[in-house]
Every structure is written in C-alpha cells, then in structure tokens.
Write a structure and sequence with these properties.
heterodimer; A: 356 residues; Purple Acid Phosphatase, chain A, domain 2; 6-stranded mixed sheet; 9 helices; 16 strands; globular; B: 129 residues; Cytochrome Bc1 Complex, Chain D, domain 2; two-stranded antiparallel ribbon; 5 helices; 2 strands
Chain lengths: 356, 129
C-alpha cells in the first residue's frame, strides 16, 4: 500500500514538474522560417531486466518521465526519435519493456537509432521487429534525415571471438571493458550513405542520427567511431549538416567544417567526461560547456531528454534536465557553430561545470 | 615469543634494528596491493554486489567521477564530513539496492584499492568539492 501510494505521489510530481523536464527538445530550422519544426529526442534508457517481471526501477522511471513530459509538449513535436540503448543487455524482455513504455507516446510517430546494447545479443534481429531497419533515411519539411547504425565493429570480434551471444553482449556492454571493440559505420553502409545522398542537392539541410559520435573523442569508452573521418568526408559537400548522437550520456557539441555535432542526454544515468579519468588523456571538444556534475543523491540528476528545433537548416537543442537548470545549445549563425545560450563565455560558467 | 627472543639477541649483539626490507619485499607487497585492487575491479563489475544486477562501472567507467583524492570532505547531502567508503555504501544501498559493507570488510577495502588505483598520480585534495 505504501509503495502504491508513493508511486502515485511520484507520478503526480512528474506531471506537476513537466515544465522542467529532463527531455531534450531539438528544433531544426527548415529552409524557410515557415518550415521550422521541432522533434523530441529520447535516448539511452538502458532498461535493465533483473528477473521475472522485475526491472531496475531507477532506469524505468527515467524513460517513463521522458515519455510523460514529451506528451505534455505544446505544440507537439512532429515526431520522436529514440537514440539507442533502449535495453541494457539486448534481451527481448528489456526491449519489450522499453518499447511498451515508449508506446505511451500519444500518437507521436516514433523512429529509432540502434545502440550497441540493443544489438550485440542477437545482432539487432528483435530490435528490427520493433523499430524497423538498422539504417535508413527519410525527408521531413525540406530536411533530409539519415539514420546510421554506427555501432558495428570488426567482423572478427562480432562473429569469431566469443563462445556465446550472451558473452558477446556482456563484453560490449561494459563501457570501460578493454575486451570491447571500436565502433564503426563500415564500408557497406558508407557506400549506401553516399548513394543515398547522391540525389540530394547540396543546399538541402541534412540531419544525421547516430548512436556513437561520428567524431573521435575518446576511444577507451567508445566515445568514438573508427571511420568517422570517412563518414564526415561523405557529408562534407553539404552546406548544412547536423549530426546528433547519443551514447555519451552528457552534453557535448562541436563543429567540424560544415558539420555541427550535438549529443543528447540519457534518461538512465550520466557519464563522467573522459577528461575526468586521470589516465585517459582524452579530449572533449573545446567549445563544449559541460553539463553540471551529477548529484549522486538525486537519481535523475544529470539525465534528461531534449526538444530539437530545426530552423534555417540548423538545430537548437533544448535540454530538459531533472534537478538542474535546463540548457539550450543553439546554432549561432554569426560564429558558425553551436553555442550554449547561457554559459558559453568562460566568465559565465558556474562551479558545477568543473569536472575532475 | 620466538621473534622477541631473536630481537633481544640482535639487540644484544649490537646490530641496528631498523625497518629493513629488500627489493623483493617491496615487490611482494606491491603485488599484494595489486591483487586487492584487481579484486576491487572484479567487484566493481560484479552484478552480485547489489541486488538488481546494476554494477558500479555502469556509472563510473574506470572508477571516474569518484574523486577519492578529495576525501575526507564535507558531503552536502549528509551534512557532515564523510569518507569515501561511506559514499561507496550509499551507492551499494541505492542504485545497486544492496546491503552495506562494513568499513573494514575486505570487499570494501578492495573497492577502495581499485578506485584509488584508477586515480594514481592525482594529488591529494582533501575537502575539495
């Protein structure tokens, strides 16, 4: 009874704080102002099965909140992207449970990006039944969208190294596991991408969704795509390219040539910046103003989702963050790169943004 | 008793009784530490440490974002100065939904040995938030 009561109170609270949600809204600018639109992006929920009908409650709550808050958006986003890692160990139980929560999105079209936690048990077979193809493209209000499967790796690792699918999944599931293997898009998919973009005019805004960053940040945690340079080369001829990726569970943004990079938050848990690992010697893009350090006593802190606003072919990400001020990383036409609207100047940064 | 007798005998013979040890001793002691730290890494990725299969490394890859060099420090959520092992227990109790370990439990010592090992070379900064 007490539990039920607590659940009820939590649900009520979630509804009440809908204005400060941990979802990120991504706004993309269309070619004309009239074509501006928004979509919601929910990612990295890591639904984790314990046994029987028990799942890790903490991670359930993150996704449930993001779905509830997305439903409250007004005006409604045009569609919802799920950015990968719906499951923790790729099982049907986890994917079904996560998909059931996502089915609470009231009538909003849902599309998916494949994450390594969804893939390495059955190589994405069951995920395909729920979400469809592992990579694809679509057009919406003058913007060309491409969804990549960026979490492939060497065939030898995938097909020859492990005695069972479960072992393969658990080896890839550990972010810092030295037995893991670098992510890549792979040659076949790069050929597909080049062909897909062949008939798209160079001034059409392009938005690419991937699970891993299509840039090289820190190989040790697979904040990395091994053939990022080759994929970037395929995207380079377009005037306005925006790559939106999950996997990293933190705010990152960067600009390489015409390509703007933005990461999205996880609903499950935050990750430290690679630079806070004393032995990594790694680099976070210098223009990134970090998210606030997470308060470990607040299960939802430093998690969230985003609303993405598309305008003039570029994207603004409005991060809905639990127990934290919301953040907006917006395209700055004058500087030609994404910038935080509140904290970009070094003098404006706040102590919780210091990570170590 | 035997050791005491030997000690007295050495003193009587006028030999210096400092804390003398050999390079082999140092190596052996270092190995002891490495073994405990390796056990800590095992626990850090062991679904059995808690009750819900969540592991420490899920949120703390390579033990990052634990800043062991800052303890003891004022922990605002507790309202007092706390030690690293208390925060480890917080994580075991909450995200892992498990049973707390005693401060001197070999597993707790192993977890701390691993966390410190990942933080080698970072200067002590007690009290730093």
């Amino acid at each position: 009874m007490t539990m039920k009561r607590r659940n009820f109170i939590r649900r009520a609270t979630t509804t009440a704080i809908a204005g400060v949600l941990p979802v990120s809204l991504i706004r993309i600018a269309g070619a004309q102002e009239s074509a501006d639109f928004t979509f919601a992006y929910i990612s990295d929920s890591h639904i984790q099965h314990i046994e029987g009908n028990r799942f890790v409650r903490n991670f359930d709550r993150g996704l449930i909140s993001a779905v509830a808050e997305t439903n409250l958006m007004n005006p409604k986003p045009d569609f919802v992207m799920f950015g990968g890692d719906l499951a923790q160990l790729g099982t049907r139980e986890e994917l079904d449970h996560g998909f059931e929560i996502l089915s609470g999105l009231n009538g909003l079209p849902l599309r998916g990006v494949l994450g390594e936690h969804d893939y390495y048990l059955d190589l994405g077979d069951y995920w395909r039944q729920l979400f469809g193809e592992h990579y694809y493209s679509f057009d919406h209000k003058g913007v060309h969208f491409v969804v990549l499967n960026s979490i492939l790796t060497f065939d030898d690792w995938t097909f020859n190294r492990w005695e069972s699918a479960e072992r393969r999944m658990s080896e890839m599931a550990g972010l810092d596991n030295p037995n893991g293997s670098p992510f890549m898009v792979g040659e076949a998919q790069r050929r597909w991408l080049a062909a897909d973009l062949q008939n798209i005019s160079r001034d059409t805004p392009v938005v690419v969704f991937s699970h891993s960053p299509i840039q090289k940040i820190y190989k040790g945690w697979n904040f990395w795509t091994d053939d990022a340079d080759q994929v970037q080369a395929i995207l380079a001829p377009f005037d306005r390219v925006n790559v939106i990726y999950g996997h990293v569970h933190q705010i990152q943004y960067n600009q390489i040539g015409n390509i703007a990079f933005n990461s999205v938050m996880a609903t499950a848990w935050p990750w430290p910046y690679p630079s806070s690992y004393a032995k990594s010697g790694s680099h976070v893009p210098v223009m990134t103003v970090p998210m606030n350090r997470a308060d470990p006593f607040s299960a939802r802190d430093a998690t969230g989702w985003q609303l993405i606003n598309v305008h003039t072919g570029r994207v603004d990400l409005e991060y809905t963050l639990y127990d934290n001020s919301n953040r907006t990383v917006s395209w700055n036409g004058a500087s030609g790169r994404p910038e935080d609207t509140s904290y970009q100047a070094p003098a404006l940064r706040v102590p919780p943004q210091n990570h170590y | 008793m035997k050791i005491l007798l030997i000690g007295m005998a050495l003193l009587a013979s006028g030999l210096v009784m400092g804390d003398e040890f050999t390079a082999a001793d140092v190596e052996r002691w270092q190995q002891q530490y490495e073994q405990v730290a390796a056990r800590g890494r095992q626990l850090f990725t062991d679904p059995a440490l808690g009750s819900n299969k969540v592991v420490c490394a899920q949120c703390h890859p390579n033990g990052a974002n634990t800043h062991p060099e800052t303890y003891p420090k004022f922990q605002k959520q507790l309202g007092r100065v706390a030690m690293l092992w208390e925060m480890i227990n917080w994580c075991i109790r909450n995200p892992l939904e498990g049973e707390e370990l005693a401060a001197d439990d070999p597993d707790m010592i192993a977890l701390q040995a691993y966390i410190h090992k990942e933080r080698e070379g970072v200067p002590l900064a007690p009290g730093k938030h």
